[in-house]
Amino acid sequence: MATELIAHRGASRERRENTLPAFARALELGADGIELDTHATSDGVVVVHHDPEPHGETMINGLAGKPFTALTAHEAASFRFPDGSHIPTLAEVAELVGDRAVLYVELKGRDIEDQIVESLRGTRARYALHSFDHRTMKRVHTKYPEVRTGILTSSYLLDPESALRESGALDYWQGSGMVDVELLERVHSVGGRVIVWTVNRAEEAAALHAAGADGICSDDLRAIRPRDPASQ
C-alpha cells in the first residue's frame, strides 16, 4: 500500500497554517490526509488553531491574550489574519474537505473529545483523533470505539506495542528522525500504522517510503511526494 501523504496544518508552506485557504490548497496538491489542531471555546465550539490562544491576528475588541476557553465562538471568529482568513471551526473544515481527505484531528485542548465527535458526526468527513496525551486516546477508545485514534510521541518508546494496546490506538505518530525498520516492524506486528511527523526533506521522505511508513506528515507535500523514476 502506498504511503499516505498528510498535510501538516494544511499546506502550511504556502498558506497560513490551520486556515481554510491552507486546507483548500492541500486538497489541490492531492493530500491524502490533513492534520490539524483543535481547542474548544467557552461555549463548547471546536476551533482549529495550534496555540491555546489566538496569535498572529489583527486583534480587535480587546480580546488579545485571552485563551479560547475564555472566548465565545463569536469572539474567536472575529480574529483575522493578515491575509484576511479567520480561525475556522472544525465544522467549517469538515464542510470544506468533505470526504476528499482524512482529517487527522489533534486534541490540544483538554477534555474536548465529546465536542469533537459531535462536530464531526453527521458530516461526510473521514476522520481520526490523536494526541500526546495517551490517556485521552484511551478514553476516546472506550467512549467511541468506532472512532479511529492515534498516539503521538517525540521519543523512541521501549515498548510501542504496549502503548498502542493500552490506549486502543491504531496510528502511532512518531517524531521525525526516530523511525527505523525495527519500529515499523514492531508497530505493524500488532496491527498498528506508523505516521511520521514532520518531514520536509525529500531524502528523508524517500527513505520512509522505501521502508514502508504508513503515512508522512509534512509542511510541503511536493517535497515528499515519491518521484517518478521515468522522470529522473
SS summary, helix count: 9
Q: What is the H-and-E element order?
A: EHEEHHEHEHEHEHEHEH
CATH architecture: Alpha-Beta Barrel
Largest sheet strand order? 1-2-4-5-6-7-8-9
Q: What fraction strand?
A: 15-25%
Fill in the CATH topology: TIM Barrel
The structural domain count equals: 1
Low-confidence parts lasting 5 or more residues at pLDDT below 50? none
Descriptors for this entry?
232 residues; alpha/beta; TIM Barrel; eight-stranded parallel barrel; 9 helices; 9 strands
Protein described:
The chain has nine helices and nine strands. With 232 residues, it is an alpha/beta fold.
Please provide a brief summary of the model.
With 232 residues, the protein is α/β, with parallel strands linked by helices. The chain is built from nine helices and nine strands.
Task: Outline the secondary-structure elements.
Elements: E1 4-8, H1 20-28, E2 33-40, E3 46-48, H2 73-77, H3 90-97, E4 102-107, H4 113-120, E5 126-131, H5 134-143, E6 148-153, H6 160-167, E7 171-175, H7 181-189, E8 193-197, H8 202-211, E9 215-218, H9 221-224
Parallel strand pairs: 1-2, 1-9, 2-4, 4-5, 5-6, 6-7, 7-8, 8-9
Antiparallel strand pairs: 2-3
Helix pairs in contact: 1-3
